[in-house]
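FORM 7B: Structural annotation worksheet

SECTION A. Query
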Amino acid sequence: MKIFFNKGIWLIASVIFMVVAFSSCKKNNTVKTNEAQNPMAQAFMKAQTTDKPKEKAESKKEEAPAAEETNIPAVERIKFNRDNAVVDNGNKPFNERKAIDIVRDMTTGWNLGNTFDATGGGKSLESEVSWGQPKTTKAMIDGLAASGIKTIRIPVSWGHHIMDSNYTIQNAWMKRVKEVVDWAIEDGMYVVINIHHDNYGKNAKMPAREGFYPTDENYENSADFVCNIWAQIALAFNNGYDEHLVFEVLNEPRLIGTSEEWYYNATSPKSIRAMANLNKLTQNILDVIRASGGNNKKRLVAVPSLQASPESALARTFKMPEDYDGSKDRLIVSVHMYTPYNFAMESPGITKYSDSVKKEFTSMFKKLNDHFIANGYAVYIGEYGATNKNNLEDRIAWFHDFIKESRVYGMPCFLWDNGVWEVEGSEYSEHYGYYNRRTQKWYFPEIIKAINEEIK
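SECTION B. Predicted structure
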């Protein structure tokens, strides 16, 4: 489930500031007198042509046996073809505020699901509609804003739009994503963009450029992928975007094809190593974003745990990445809550809303608050919803209480919408359609009304 210097700070920074050189495993601090001398910034701009050899670090062991790791700074992995990249030449002031304050302003959100995250259609721009949703229009975005939606999360899959062996993203794809982002920004909305369905689809050795997968054997290819994708996103979205744009590093990173895909097992070496690899990948991504400079130096960055589940976020092995100055004020914990599972997602599960249903999400909100917000980290719910089980009255009650409770702790919630709303028979799985994108009307106006009543 919205990173750069404003003009005043830029003038100061151009004279003198502290540059933090990040690596995927550790950080060394050096002071420079001019940003042009920043080795991170130089590497970011020139890495696609560098032939500097990569040095391997000694292998090390953590709580489970680890594969050999290389100690390559994140920006030195960057090699995309900048000549074909989209470059942001905008110049917008950035109002730097604490993440906890900004997420409160995000209020309530909606996901443009099954659209830019869709993976059909190959490299064609038609992949946007390959999962059955209509092409996104400005009228759709305007309709959301008019309905009271303050934030739009735009999930994006990038892997199918890589055009060469250097991870270069298709120019037209990046421009199309920018077009829709700009429509939402023009409507005064906050926008979240991410890497979405680029998690490799099986527990096996992953070829280069096939995405990411949080295992030891796939760490190097994963790091190359995420660093190059985020370097290009950061190049395309920089000084032209203020604090209303948020970067979310990954969506539901997990061990696809294993028994621990949707479950973090705190006693399993497999889960423990996956978390360790995820922690390194998110640090790499943050390093690349910050190295892009400009407004991205200050942009909010959201980070999920494994599966983006609240339970794994609360695990002691999950670590938020460290920002260049050690501040927590630009970082957000992103979690997904279809809670409780038997009411909000499972088919058939249960259909009746009750106090016991309510207790499950109220207790989880409190745990997230006590673990993160009380310790200085902002939290947002990047996805939530209750699948349609022909139980509208119960869902309305669930939405009222869910949003009311989230507001107590200042956690905005972004409704997952995949366009599937009509139930046939007794199959209730994945019926998270709420907004009719063709008519700009809501399938269940009572639900958006309930949400809006609780955010006032």
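SECTION C. Observations
The first strand starts at residue 17 and ends at 22. The CA atoms of residues 21 and 28 lie 6 Å apart.

SECTION D. Sign-off
Analyst initials: ____
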